[in-house]
Automatic annotation (TrEMBL):
Protein's organism: Vanrija pseudolonga
Highest classification ranks of the organism: Eukaryota, Fungi, Dikarya, Basidiomycota, Agaricomycotina
All residue ranges annotated as the Protein kinase domain in the record: 7-286
EC number: 2.7.11.1
InterPro entries referenced in this protein's UniProt entry, alphabetically: Kinase-like_dom_sf, NEK_Ser/Thr_kinase, Prot_kinase_dom, Protein_kinase_ATP_BS, Ser/Thr_kinase_AS
One Pfam family it belongs to: Pkinase
Chain positions recorded as ATP binding sites: K36
Gene (UniProt): Nek2_1
Protein name: non-specific serine/threonine protein kinase
Keyword annotations from UniProtKB, A to Z: ATP-binding, Kinase, Nucleotide-binding, Transferase
Enzyme class: transferase
């Protein structure tokens, strides 16, 4: 087991491409923490991602974002000390439900969605010299849980800080944030007691040409997260010979119409029409009152 000054390492929690996360107890006050230890990274990209996560987390403070505690350099390695979440991650929770052959109660889906939205709202509203943070990697593995029912957004390695709210980034990071970068139209229909959402897009090459995006990329990824909680699947993407993409999916009829509508609106690939986190928060509590 590794040694970290000021901490007693109790076991490994997980590992990624650029770091291994351990559970540890701080000796001065017995606080349980999670410590991400930078692996032997030979690529400049890995170094930048780890440094970016540290810089971003150190400026964010919100109940629905994993808390930054400190950074330790020991034996030429960087150690990021963070808040420990004792409930695992959302991926593990979904896998448990899937293995048991059960669906998640809508009330639990609502709670997780709302808490992630609140954490995102802080990122998108966070002002430090007029800057905001776009997460760019929202997925079940990066949504952590506590035994007390608190949900926290984690892993800011791929995040980007934009100087103003209307600023846009252009780098490509992954499918969940890649899909909405190109303009499209959304059609909503009810078929066979299931609400279907689909959008036809322009040529996918526009993404690789540096088509700009901003906080709307996170909103689309949040839609994918919500869809996966409802269906244990992700929306289907079809691409024809002309490079036109269609995003399709269906939400089970047992979910309220309000939940179905919110999911489909978040999956709208029309980047420029996305409501902000603040606008969603103004309407989100109407979900439970929507007709089924």
């Amino acid at each position: 087991m590794i040694g970290i000054p000021g901490y007693v390492v109790q076991g490994r929690l997980g590992a990624g491409g650029f770091g291994t996360v351990y559970r540890a107890e701080r000796t001065k006050d017995d606080q349980v923490c999670a410590i991400k230890v930078q692996t032997e990274i030979r690529s400049s990209l890995g170094v930048r991602l780890f440094a970016n996560e540290i810089a971003t987390m150190s400026h964010l403070s919100h109940p629905n974002i994993v808390s930054f505690i400190e950074v330790i350099t020991h034996e030429s390695k960087t150690h990021l000390v963070m808040e420990y979440c004792d409930g695992g991650d959302l991926r593990g929770l979904l896998d448990d439900y899937l293995e048991a052959g059960q669906g998640i109660f809508e009330e639990d889906v609502q709670s997780i969605f709302l808490q992630v939205l609140l954490g995102l709202h802080h990122c998108h509203s966070h002002l430090k010299q007029g800057s905001i943070v776009v997460h760019r990697d929202i997925k079940p593995e990066n949504v952590l849980l506590t035994s007390g029912g608190i949900v926290k957004l984690a892993d800011f390695g791929l995040s980007v800080t934009l100087k103003r709210r209307k600023a846009h980034a252009t780098s490509i990071v992954g499918v969940r944030t890649m899909l909405p970068h190109i303009s499209a139209s959304l059609r909503l229909t009810v078929k066979d007691k299931r609400l279907r959402c689909a959008g036809g897009t322009e040529a996918v090459q526009e993404i690789h040409a540096g088509h700009p995006y901003g906080t709307a990329a996170d909103m689309f990824s949040l839609g994918c997260l919500l869809y996966e909680m409802c269906t244990f699947d992700i929306p289907t993407v079809h691409t024809n010979d002309q490079g036109t993409m269609t995003i399709e999916g269906s939400i089970p009829a047992e979910f309220s119409r309000g939940m179905q509508d919110i999911t489909c609106h978040l999956l709208n690939p029309e980047l420029l029409t996305f409501p902000t986190t603040g606008e969603w928060l103004q309407d989100i509590f109407s979900i439970s009152e929507a007709p089924r």
